[in-house]
Amino acid sequence: MADRGASALSLPDDWPAHPDPILALNQMGSFDWDLDTGLFHMDPQAHEVFDLRPEEYDGRPESLGVRVPRTEGRRLDTLVAQAIKDGSENYGAYFRLRCRDGTLRWTHTQGYIRRDETGRPRRIIGIVRDATQELGEFAVRREQAGQDHARRDQTDVVEFTTAALAHARTVQDVIDVLKDTHGVTHLGATSLVMGLVEAGRIRLVAEGPEGSFVPGTLITRIDEPYPMSEVVRTLSPRFIESPEEFAEGYPILWPHITDLEITSAAYLPLIVQAQPIGAMGLLYNDRRGFTPEERNILVALGSSIAQSLQRAMFYEQEKDLASGLQQAMLPRTIPSVRGADVAVRYRAGGAGGSLGRDIGGDWYDLIPLPGGRVGAVIGDVQGHDTHAAAVMGQLRIVLRAYAAEGHTPATVMARASVFLHELDTDRFATCLYAEADLATGVVQVVRAGHIDPLIRAPDGSCRRVPVPGGLPLGLSAEFGRLEYPVGTVELDPGHTLLLCTDGLVEEPGADLDDGVQALTALVASGPQDVWKLADLLIDVAEERGGEDDVALLLLRRRGLDAPQTGGRLQQHVTPGDPEALTEARHMIRAAVGAWGAADRSDEVELVADELITNALMHTEGAAIFTLRVLSGSDRRLRVEVEDSSSALPRRREATHSCVSGRGLLLVELLTDVWGVEARGGGKCVWAEFVVPERR
Question: What pTM was estimated for this model as a whole?
Answer without folding.
Answer: 0.53
